[in-house]
Write a structure and sequence with these properties.
The protein is of the alpha+beta class. The protein folds into 2 domains: 72 residues, Glutaredoxin, CATH 3.40.30; 144 residues, Glutathione S-transferase Yfyf (Class Pi), Chain A, domain 2, CATH 1.20.1050.10. It is built from 12 helices and 4 strands; from the N terminus they run βαβαββαααααααααα. Strands 2-1-3-4 form a 4-stranded mixed beta sheet, with helices on one face. Strand 3 and strand 4 form a beta hairpin. The protein is globular and about 50 Å long. The mean pLDDT is 96. The structure holds glutathione.
């Protein structure tokens, strides 16, 4: 048995962030997929939020994708995914926080919105978040192709899964990445070729099927409940 175990579900974008970190860092790991509609008792005993991903390592249980990724970075420092300079590390953390607090909720809220006015308001919020990512993030952080320059980092891994789901928003809500976000589009294209992305990603058709529960606002899961309240 590998010493690192990641507990996931087949199409969870948050678990995808941690799986990508494991692959990018070359960490041998065991992947345990659970059914979120029928959570096993052993999982509920170790996961206080009842959410994936959960990491088990050396007898410890760690949850929350951003915390798991920082933990992996500390414990497995080879093939670093954070800059070495403290200022750059702080900048990376600012954008990881932005992804979690100011970007990802808008993706879900646009999916969950049912009437046209609410959808238009949510689409505007998501557009503004992307414009900020384009101009204040990718446009200012460095000259490289990735968020923090020439090397992939935890920032890229944090944004990627929900940026991939823009195709699902296009399907259900006719939402597009704004035309002026050329850096963002180039970054998404670059990321889509990385083995950590191709290995850990479901097809667009699968994602469209999986997110129908959000598009129709019928999800009874905790993620939808949290995002409705966000
Ligand atoms: N903030 C958490 C979010 C994790 C999350 O929402 N996971 C979803 C699956 S994508 C989940 O396990 N939901 C449980 C449920 O819907 O009951 C993280 O970053 O790890």
């Amino acid at each position: 048995m590998a010493e690192v175990e990641i507990i996931s579900s087949s199409t969870c974008p948050f678990a995808q962030r941690t799986r990508m970190a494991l692959i990018e860092k070359g960490i041998d790991h065991e992947l345990t997929a659970i059914d979120l509609n029928d959570k096993p008792d052993w999982f509920l005993e170790i996961s206080p939020y009842g959410k994936v991903p959960v990491l088990r390592h050396n007898g410890a249980v760690i949850f929350e994708s951003a915390v798991i990724n920082e933990y992996l970075e500390e414990v497995f420092p080879d093939r670093p995914l954070m800059p070495s300079d403290p200022i750059r590390r702080a900048q990376a953390r600012i954008w990881i926080d932005f992804a979690n607090v100011r970007f990802t909720p808008h993706v879900y809220k646009l999916m969950l919105a049912q009437d046209a006015d609410a959808q238009a308001a949510q689409a505007e919020r998501l557009t503004n978040a992307m414009l900020m990512m384009e101009h204040e993030g990718l446009g200012k952080l460095g000259d490289g192709s990735y968020w923090m320059g020439d090397d992939i980092s935890l920032v890229d891994l944090t944004f990627l899964p929900h940026m991939q789901r823009v195709g699902v928003l296009t399907h259900y809500r006719d939402f597009q990445i704004p035309d002026e976000c050329v850096l963002l589009k180039g970054w998404l294209q670059l990321m889509s070729q990385r083995p950590s992305v191709t290995e850990g990603s479901a097809s667009l058709d699968v994602l469209i099927g999986n997110w129908r529960k959000y598009a129709e606002n019928t999800s009874t899961g905790t993620t939808a409940a949290d995002m409705r309240a966000a």
